[in-house]
Amino acid sequence: MEQKIRRDLNLGTNLRRLRDSVGISQEKLCAELQRRGCDIGRTTYAKYEAGELNIRASVIVELKKYYNCSYDDFFEGLDK
Questions:
Q1: What secondary structure letter does DSSP report for 79?
Q2: Using CA atoms, how far apart are residues 62 and 40, in angstroms rounded to an integer?
Q3: pLDDT tens digits along 22-76
Q4: What's the half-sphere exposure (Cβ side, CA atoms, 13 Å) at 19?
Q5: What are phi and psi of 4, to 5 degrees?
Q6: Angle between helix 57-67 and helix 26-35 axes, rounded to 10 deg
Q7: Is the pLDDT of residue 1 over 70?
Q8: Is the pTM of the predicted complex or chain greater than 0.70?
Q9: Residue ranges per structural domain of the chain
Q10: Which helix (H) or strand (E) holds 72?
Q11: pLDDT 10s digits, 5-27
């Protein structure tokens, strides 16, 4: 069951920045995540980027592996 976001910090901008940095579409990214065992659809991922849903920790872990980045990259600029 998806959890609606309650006014919290939005990781969406950073999620999109990371995805754009490797030049992949939301659909292809979700297919890659599914291949890695992370059950996520494009519509759900789009809601993560739009700040409409909280992203699950398991998705962040898989994205970190895919992008080969640090966890800090997901939270960049949120402490301002």
A1: T
A2: 11
A3: 999 999 999 999 999 999 999 999 999 998 888 999 999 999 999 999 999 999 9
A4: 22
A5: -70, 145
A6: 100
A7: no
A8: yes
A9: 12-68
A10: helix 72-75
A11: 455 667 899 999 999 999 999 99
One-letter amino acid identity for 6? R
- Among residues 45, 46, 52, the alpha carbon closest in space to that of 10 is found at 52
Contacts of range 52-59, beta carbons closer than 8 Å, 24 or more positions apart? 52/4, 52/5, 53/2, 53/3, 53/4, 53/5, 54/3, 54/5, 54/8, 55/11, 55/15, 59/33
Dist CA 36 CA 54 (whole Å): 20
Contact 38, 59 (CB under 8 A): yes
Contacts of 28-37 with CB under 8 Å at 24 or more apart are 29/66, 32/66, 33/59, 33/62, 33/63, 33/66, 36/62, 36/65, 36/66, 37/62
